[in-house]
Amino acid sequence: AAKDRGKQCMARYEPDMDLHSIEEARLGAQLRHAIDAGEMRLVYQPIVELPHGRIVGVEALVRWQHPQHGVVSPGLFVPVAERNGLIVPLGEWILREACRQAARWRDLPGTRSLRKISVNVSARQLREPDFAATVAGILHETGLEPHRLVVEVTETAVFDGGAALDSVWALHRLGVSIALDDFGTGHSSLGLLRTCPADILKVDKSFVDEVTAGDQDVIAAALIQIASGLHLQATAEGVETADQAEHLHRLGYRFAQGYHFGRPMAAENITELLQAASKAAVPS
Ligand code: C2E
Ligand code: MG
Ligand code: MG
Ligand code: MG
């Protein structure tokens, strides 16, 4: 019966899908051109230490400056790039750009609190058999130490094991840190902690949203217990209010990220924040 239902659904959605696939082909073609045309850029969102809010990391997030449509969000074009395979060259560009910027920050005065840069990596990239070798090459080329790089993967990406999980292990052996992004929303969550060499759990915004009056925080509270029991670092994602930050700190969270601390911004703005904080800490 499920099979029949599936067939009916397919039939009903076919006209829509055709329209959609035309749009997708158009977007795909523009995307192919976008990397070479220099329309891609990275923004960086602070990852801070609680309770003081010192910036200890940044997450690189890609933006597409489309000549007609303005800034296109990755939620829209990353899935397209994953389906047509362009995420492989695009992801390589993103990694190189992020590592280059991280090496720059390492060498600038007044930016020492920044220890790590996080880069999102898709399942499609992890399934490339030489992905870890590509990362090693980029680290070598940019002069960035492996321990300064965090690769963010989703549970779903590594859930099936296979080549994606092999890549994660190879990255781990290189000395790159592994973060499980949107943790708690994917397929396997807890079982994955045994098979995947994770260093960081990024606790999904949906659980952080519940941390308000202090009595709705059951999952956020359980996840920090699991993380500390397994000696993993936990980062709360999508923290929007001072109230949430305070509650998360009380639950035991040491790291957080969200609009309350800083929106994704250009590299120069991160530099300014870092240098201003360093001056404030050490008056000269
Ligand atoms: P993500 O890796 O979970 O990134 C966090 C997303 O939440 C970012 O959206 C960020 O701007 C947003 N965010 C951060 N703090 C807050 C907050 O306090 N409130 C709210 N409402 N949102 C917040 P963005 O930049 O649109 O990226 C969306 C997703 O697209 C990312 O989720 C990631 O899965 C994917 N993505 C972004 N950049 C890349 C990339 O370079 N490569 C790959 N493969 N995927 C990327
Ligand atoms: Mg992420
Ligand atoms: Mg996330
Ligand atoms: Mg997310």
TrEMBL record:
Residue ranges occupied by any EAL domain in the UniProt entry = 24-278
Identification of the protein by name? Diguanylate cyclase (GGDEF) domain-containing protein
**Annotated source species:** Planosporangium flavigriseum
* Source taxonomy: Bacteria, Bacillati, Actinomycetota, Actinomycetes, Micromonosporales
